[in-house]
Specification:
2 domains, single chain, mainly alpha, 5 helices
Length: 102
């Protein structure tokens, strides 16, 4: 319990910023019209390549015997890759709708 309290006291600035980001994100997303949700989400999903790269870096820097870090890293890489591919698929389908039909 002391470790948790110590963590929060040492990182209170970062925790404050994350909480602030959550509130700002909810406020910004709440103002977006429903018509734009699909294009914005497909673009955001495609940007999740950063998550994949970050997860790979974390896995490379962790010890081979740390199975928790390796497992979480694998899950992050797998889910991030699914998100990236899904973002590109949705974006491709949206762009197909704007092409002229033959």
């Amino acid at each position: 319990m002391n470790e948790i309290i110590e963590f929060f006291t040492q990182h209170k600035d970062m925790i404050f910023i994350v909480v602030l980001m959550v509130f700002v994100g909810v406020e910004v997303i709440g103002k977006v019209p429903a018509v734009l949700h699909t294009p914005l989400m497909s673009g955001a999903n495609a940007i999740h390549g950063v998550v994949v790269v970050g997860a790979i870096i974390v896995m490379l820097n962790s010890e081979p015997t740390n199975y928790i870090a390796m497992g979480l890293g694998f899950i992050a890489v797998f889910l991030g890759t699914l998100n990236v591919v899904g973002g590109f698929v949705v974006t491709d389908r949206m762009l197909e709708m704007f092409k002229k039909k033959k």
